[in-house]
């Protein structure tokens, strides 16, 4: 049987190729769509992929991971403009049954000269997957949500490699961004951690909060080395108001 990583890549490559085999990866009878801007059931996936393929999109996989029933990927899309994306699928019996994503325009390079998607790709330390998952979860809950910024050095290396498009490398830039305020409240406010997915030295955290007063979805990918966060990538996407959702499943 194909791995979940292979199934994810077959599915998303279908956006580029229009291959009907891509749609077969999905169990449409069970499929739950969490992208608020995508209808459910209004168009068969095979027809959707065939239509999108005519626009000559390109799908470039940067990193692909697997965690239990889930596969998740870090992707560059070229749909008339370049976008950075995280895609997450849950599988049952070899078919995708649930989908989440977080997509933003590709920006950069950042002040340290790094792109949003370059950097390390090798998956290592598979025996440390659960330790790394727990570390990223504690960091999100205590530092990002709990705002215990004095704990930053316990979780993040001083020489952090940063791919977020507005930040430089290193711990001081991250601290400054988290300390920044807008009208007296933190400009970046993490409020809920919804999912933590991990494989080896990589952990993806999906969180909800506010960015400059806008309801926002934060997807943060961490590479962990020697018990601290050594490298960070993200996508940040505004969540449309409930009245604009095209399905009732919620972003998370």
What descriptive keywords fit this protein?
252 residues; alpha+beta; 5-stranded mixed sheet
How would a crystallographer describe the biggest sheet?
Answer: 5 strands, mixed
Q: How do the strands line up in the largest sheet?
A: 1-5-4-3-2
The proportion of strand residues reads: 35-45%
What is the radius of gyration? 18 Å
Helix fraction?
Answer: 10-25%
- Tell me the series of helices and strands, N- to C-terminal: HHEHEEEEHHEHEEEEEE
Mean pLDDT: 91
Q: Could you say which structural class the secondary elements and strand pairing correspond to? A: alpha+beta
Q: Which segments are poorly predicted (pLDDT under 50) over 5 or more consecutive residues?
A: none
N-end to C-end Cα span: 29 Å
How many E-type strands?
12
Oligomeric organization of the protein chains: single chain
Shape: globular
How many H/I helical runs? 6
Question: Can you tell me about this structure?
Answer:
The chain has 252 residues and is of the alpha+beta class. Helices cover 23% and strands 40% of the residues. It contains six helices and twelve strands. The protein has helices spanning 4-17, 20-23, 45-53, 129-145, 152-155, 171-179, and strands at 32-33, 58-67, 70-79, 81-92, 95-105, 156-162, 181-182, 185-186, 188-199, 202-211, 214-225, 228-238. A five-stranded mixed beta sheet has the order 1-5-4-3-2, with helices on one face. A hairpin with a 1-residue loop joins strand 3 (70-79) and strand 4 (81-92). The longest helix is centred in the middle third of the chain and has 17 residues, at 129-145. The chain is globular. The chain starts with a helix and ends in a 14-residue tail after the last strand. The mean pLDDT is 91.
